Amino acid sequence: xxxxxxxxxxxxxxxxxxxxxxxxxxxxxxxxxxxxxxxxxxxxxxxxxxxxxxxxxxxxxxxxxxxxxxxxxxxxxxxxxxxxxxxxxxxxxxxxxxxxxxxxxxxxxxxxxxxxxxxxxxxxxxxxxxxxxxx
Length: 135
Prior knowledge:
alpha+beta; 6 strands; six-stranded mixed sheet; 43% strand
């Protein structure tokens, strides 16, 4: 099942590049939550929450671009993703270029949660994965 979970999560994350939320692969009770210092923290619940999260992302940034860097099977229906967000904060005009990580959980072919962490290393630690690299 892990290969299917990795591909499911890859499809969901890659959809963000073309502003596609892919709600059909999200559980109706999905939760999205980011680290406390994130400009868009959440939590967001359900399909309406995914829409709200995306709306706040678009409202907060100009020329926002999300790049998928890595997708790793973390076992137990969890997938670690490393992403990069590039854009400009709409309110301040300050450029943003941040690489971060998330642990995405799946169940029965649906995304059930995406919990973001400020760094890929923090996400790896939360997923129980070890990494010798400094991040």
